[in-house]
Structure to design on (202 residues):
């Protein structure tokens, strides 16, 4: 259902408020609890049939208090699966294959990114599973990002191919009853936390 300008203003304000509180909750987790939860999320992921049988996995590079992905990426590569990671260019993401973590380079937003000289750009139509970051997720699969809309276009492109499974990675503390949403927001298919795997129905 379309929303008018006044509703859009309210949704934008609600997102900003949730973005602040969600970041604070995640940052408040101790390093040891985040590390333990990250390991549990990784174990749950690699054992999941959709991930275990994926030929090509799109995975973000976790930073700060996000769910860490380094061990996960190393594990996927070690068992012969291909991995691509995002590279920020302007307001969009490029999708570059990586072969180890040592080749990542600093990006324009302070993120570690693939070096395009060492890995080629991959068509999203080839992706089997995409692992998605966020500040908050709800049970319907809607996610709250950082406000840059980088993943909105990528998720829309994946949906147009109708092939890849999208999986949000989150700590239990990041789950909320409802994420404010707009027409362009896309839900993920699953959410994996340290305690459970949620099938969203998306």
């Amino acid at each position: 259902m379309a929303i008018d300008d006044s509703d859009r203003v309210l949704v934008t304000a609600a997102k900003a408020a949730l973005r602040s509180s969600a970041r604070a909750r995640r940052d408040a987790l101790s390093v040891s609890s985040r590390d333990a939860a990250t390991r549990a999320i990784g174990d749950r992921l690699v054992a999941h049939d959709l991930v275990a049988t994926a030929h090509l996995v799109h995975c973000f590079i976790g930073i700060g208090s996000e769910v860490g992905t380094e061990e996960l990426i190393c594990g996927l590569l070690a068992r012969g699966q291909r991995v691509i990671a995002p590279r920020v260019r302007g307001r969009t993401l490029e999708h570059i294959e990586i072969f180890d973590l040592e080749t990542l380079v600093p990006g324009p937003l302070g993120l570690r990114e693939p070096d395009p000289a060492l890995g080629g750009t991959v068509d999203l139509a080839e992706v089997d599973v995409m692992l998605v970051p966020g500040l908050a997720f709800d049970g319907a699969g809607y996610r709250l990002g950082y406000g840059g809309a980088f993943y909105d276009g990528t998720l829309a492109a994946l949906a147009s191919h109708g092939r890849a499974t999208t999986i949000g990675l989150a700590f239990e503390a990041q789950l909320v009853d409802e994420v404010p949403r707009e027409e362009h927001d896309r839900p993920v298919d699953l959410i994996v936390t340290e305690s459970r795997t949620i099938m969203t129905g998306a």
The longest strand covers residues 82-89.
